[in-house]
């Protein structure tokens, strides 16, 4: 039985696990922009397992204006399912677990219900300091309102104005943070100080005082001068240089400072956040941070190249560990609920409608998307609405992957431009995936948007647990590890994807599949087709692969075959012979017919 004092009494000691703490049960919560989910993890036998879940609307807006209300409602749903008392009559969490089985030993939570941190980026050279500063903003729920480079002035003509002139309009939009950089360590002095004085002048003219944060991540030799210039007119923080040398980037300190500012300036001001924080066993993480924790665990435990894609209502997050290098990109205004209209603004209606298997009136589709952004909690009532949201999800993932590819995902990618590096595991999460009417629809969204190459495993965070389990790992690694292994992922199956192009209908890949019961299947998959071969979850098969001379199966050589053992899943073996990069037919009717075929093959 847990030994800490419960929330009904003293709340001291909940922030850490003390010596002698016998941890048996925990609630894990994730408060998203539209939905709050809570799960009960309990010791079943000698393993921690998922026992029950509850979910409700996130309650940060009127009429509730208290995020903890949604958490309590989700907990009450768990009470009704399990018959277990978790909340007191006053609505407080009962901690620790009692001898009669009521209560739990604590709660951990992740949150991404706050509005994004608005950042203005200012640097000297676009291809150096500004590029590195922009990479640093990918770390969390950050919206870059503007990015200013000293070498951008007047189209490069250098005829006056400089950063000061560009800053005037930028600061009228009231960013939360100015991220300032420039100069390698021991390098440029005068241009960096000039930029700092321009920022100081613009802030002073607006009378912002300490209301705007300035983070300096430039030449470390100038820290004292920067403090003198900006210390009085801003809330200044100085961190390590993002570009210490011309060839080296050091983003960690700037990223951590932006995360800290998001937690303090945005998460910390969410109504009811203080109450939720007082219940938690550990500091509250963002949803992105929790997912990153568990992704690192999976990648290192199994020595896998892993990519996770989280499509939310307001944001899309792509994180991965590829070739030993970790990266993360958050698109804070690309989602399929609150920010679905931003997806449309960036790609245009034609790119969304191209994924639909039938003709849709563009104006009606536009109205649907606008209404969805106004009422993000609504559930699609028609097939047209459902497929529009799934199409927007494809584009949100694709746009985020493009940013990730330019920042960190490009290393280790095939020589052919635009192809993904070799991945062992792809994990998808978010309601548009986990709540898709069929698992085939979720698989097709991921295949279309990510376009993996070679062989990889496709999985879903079906129970929407992974970020919370990442947060739990900071409190009780064993409980998190066992819950991930037992309940964290739904394996969809093994994907075999060919790269290259050929003539539609010509054989792209020949397969020979030997099941463990001795049965053998042979198949020929034409170029342009998707084919599913049955292989149940928990089963394995030996697959002999023989691609045609125009195609590569991830071995770096076209026409080269291989024999390997693969795992099954809910869908089985998915053979994607549509080529890479994926090319959709230009003719509308042919494209829609082909998409119907693909959906039918995956049972969607």
Beta-strand percentage? 15-25%
- How many helices? The count is 17
Profile the largest sheet.
8 strands, mixed
Q: Average pLDDT across residues? A: 91
N-end to C-end Cα span = 47 Å
User: Using DSSP, what is the number of strands?
Assistant: 22
Protein structure class: alpha/beta
Unreliable stretches covering 5 or more consecutive residues? 1-20, 154-160
| Spatial order of strands in the largest sheet | 13-12-11-14-15-16-22-19
In helices, the fraction of residues equals: 25-40%
| Coarse shape | globular
Structurally, how many domains make up the residues?
3
Rg over CA atoms: 26 Å
Summed up, what is this model?
The chain has 604 residues and is an alpha/beta fold. It has helices at 67-82, 126-136, 162-172, 190-206, 223-230, 252-265, 273-279, 287-302, 340-347, 349-353, 362-374, 383-409, 431-434, 439-450, 466-473, 477-488, 588-601, and strands at 25-31, 35-44, 47-57, 107-111, 117-123, 142-149, 177-180, 213-216, 235-238, 285-286, 306-311, 316-322, 325-331, 425-429, 454-460, 490-497, 507-515, 520-526, 530-533, 540-547, 562-567, 572-576.
